[in-house]
Amino acid sequence: AQSVSQHNHHVILSEAASLELGCNYSYGGTVNLFWYVQYPGQHLQLLLKYFSGDPLVKGIKGFEAEFIKSKFSFNLRKPSVQWSDTAEYFCAVKSYNNNDMRFGAGTRLTVKP
Amino acid sequence: DVKVTQSSRYLVKRTGEKVFLECVQDMDHENMFWYRQDPGLGLRLIYFSYDVKMKEKGDIPEGYSVSREKKERFSLILESASTNQTSMYLCASSLSGWEQYFGPGTRLTVT
User: Fold this and answer.
1) Is B56 on the interface with A (CB under 8 A)?
2) How high is the pLDDT of residue B19?
3) Which residue spans within chain B are E strands per DSSP?
4) Strand locations in chain A, DSSP E?
């Protein structure tokens, strides 16, 4: 079964700083990759997803992620964070021919105004 | 817009009680999922279903069962609640091969 590692448990940044959250997965086959976000008190929402094609995917709210197959990584980036980006971020992976998904432990992002 | 609803936002139960958590989706999705979310552990898959009356164990099925009698509804059952089942429970649904959509969650406290 696939597993997902998120390296940072809690990241604290000032507004306008750049963000990169790491995500690595272990699975040898073809995968679909996702980043979800959970704002305080809200349900999980999809930020972006990778299925195939261009390994650099753009999502909502200025987020992007790069799939590097050789490194089994799918890191999330944003050039300039805002206070409203304070949330918990989850990386997830599912194998191409299955429907069940595995999530990382999550990274809590705090952006100081 | 996909809508996944869960029967309760907050629930308090006593040890040994039978607990039902209900989830309904309105987008005709084949697949439905139950997770529990705990700090530092992320989301862990309890059970999922890819069709009516079908179910598959996830990573942590012990102490739980599920029921899917209708396509839109997926129930999680705690036969005899224990304190270590205190958690946030999240339901999700998806079309086959696509991303999952989540409900708001049920925060269950077992005392």
Assistant:
1) yes
2) 97
3) 4-6, 10-13, 19-25, 31-38, 42-49, 56-57, 65-70, 73-78, 87-94, 101-102, 106-110
4) 3-5, 10-14, 19-21, 24-26, 31-38, 45-50, 56-58, 64-68, 73-78, 87-95, 102-103, 107-112
**Hey, what are B37's tokens?**
């979310």
The letter for the amino acid at A62 is: G
AA letter at B16: G
Contact B83, B15 (CB under 8 A): yes
**Per-residue pLDDT tens for B4-53?**
999 999 999 999 999 999 999 999 999 999 999 999 899 999 999 999 99
> Do B42 and A101 count as a contact with CB atoms less than 8 A apart?
no
**Residue A5's beta-bridge partner residues?**
A24
Q: Is A25 on the interface with B (CB under 8 A)?
A: no
Whole-angstrom distance, CA of residue A44 vs CA of residue A113: 24
Give per-residue pLDDT as tens, A70-108.
999 999 999 999 999 999 999 999 987 777 789 999 999
- Token readout for A77 is 């980036």
